[in-house]
Automatic annotation (TrEMBL):
Domain of life from the UniProt record: Eukaryota
A single MF term (Gene Ontology): oxidoreductase activity
Protein name in UniProt: FAD/NAD(P)-binding domain-containing protein
Gene3D superfamilies: 1.10.405.20, 3.30.70.1990, FAD/NAD(P)-binding domain (3.50.50.60)
InterPro entries: Amino_oxidase, FAD/NAD-bd_sf
Residue span, Amine oxidase domain: 170-451
Biological source species: Mollisia scopiformis (Conifer needle endophyte fungus)
Amino acid sequence: MSIAVPSILERGFASQDIITRDVVIIGGGATGTYAAVRLREDFNKSVVVIEKTGRLGGHTETYFDPVTGYPVDYGVQAWVDGPIVRNFTGRFNISLVPAVSPPFATDYIDFKTGKHVIPPFTNATIIGQALGTYFQLILQWPFLAEGYNLPSPIPADLLLTFGDFVNKYGIQAAVPTIWTFSQSVGDILNTPTIYIVQTFGISEVQAVLENGFVVPADHFNSELYLKASALLGADVLYGTTTIDVARHDVGLQQITVQTPTGQKLIKAKKILVTIPPTADNMKPFTLNHHESSLFNQWQYTTYYTGIIRNGVPDDVNVINTQSGTEFDLPTLPFVQEFSFSGVPGLHTFHTVSTKSQTDADVESLILSDLTAMSSAGTFPASSPSIEVLSNHTPLGLRVTADSIAAGFYANLYALQGLKGTFYTGLAWAGDYTSVLWTFTDALLPGIAAAAT
Ligand SMILES: Cc1cc2nc3c(=O)[nH]c(=O)nc-3n(C[C@H](O)[C@H](O)[C@H](O)COP(=O)(O)OP(=O)(O)OC[C@H]3O[C@@H](n4cnc5c(N)ncnc54)[C@H](O)[C@@H]3O)c2cc1C
């Protein structure tokens, strides 16, 4: 008869501080929540989610205006309609309605001068033709809808900078529209085209053309994650981060975590990493040389969203359109836009930088842009305040075209399942909830089978 002997690591923990599960999921955002619910409810696997904040949902964030009580989504806005979105929201009895663009006026303003400008392309037919050409071009690459399983050789057009791609195919008039979807990559004209397609791909273009985005009928996207949180209950450890991850090809993985009430040891058959696998995020994992050489290559964007009060008149959206630059795209760092939320006084915003920024840097960027608008007399002077500021960094994870050509993604994907570890999340496929749930879905049978 054999007797289970506790490992040295285990001996440091009281029995109530040792959690044993089939799968430990790091990160409780869109993909971590999806995987946890599906693995537990549909694959009959025990799970625990490690989430550093006090809530599920990640980039999905909702603010409740204390004046009116109305919700304002200032992260994820809408989902691309399709079976995966219907199935997952349906299990929480969330009914969906088409996301309708409200009939607010759009003003084009150079945020540096604060003055109105005429956008570079105004002819709807020419813009539509350029977008049509873009759509026809990206139809060549349906495999991108499932992530980065790239053919060999990789199509050369995907590795061109997007600026060169635009010039090659004469789709200049589509650039400002594409930028509104792809600005999270930073400098879109100097980014490999593959990343533009991953942020404005076939299903997203179709959704734009056919009104194919949906939102919960209650108009607050966090509803999904609140309901998932209630379902998962104690299987989520909030306010918790990993301290040390001991991984093994065979046997149990041992993950030491810091919870608000002290350290705990998680023993799990498999690990699912859903957080962006930057070198910094992966520090507790004691990476081998090969893993480090991949994860050290990421470049990413510093990205903030939030809500201002009283900066811009109601019923108006303003888009940053900088005179004198290529396609009048604003130079980094920039505030992309102020969009009217539908709630009196409140506009949402996004800010983009390819360098690191502090909260104070972003606040000062926003307030100086708003001051420029009132100083220029574009809008009446007001006393704007930043109601909410939310840091979504790191976003737009990308590597160089040379690295992609040298097989970066083949090497990255080959990590799946090694050392007891699987991966999903925004670094692994196009950064849309529906795409990432689809990517995650494809992994789940393999994870469930491996975690027996
Ligand atoms: C502002 C914004 C708007 C968007 N709008 C849309 C949209 O309208 N429609 C759409 O389809 N997609 C949209 N997206 C894309 C969106 O990123 C993805 O849909 C999705 O949120 C990515 O899921 P994820 O699980 O990879 O990451 P996340 O949802 O970010 O989840 C990661 C989770 O891990 C947690 N975490 C991070 N580090 C650690 C750590 N070390 N330990 C423990 N936990 C950690 C985070 O707190 C977070 O909860 C938007 C993205 C952003 C940023």
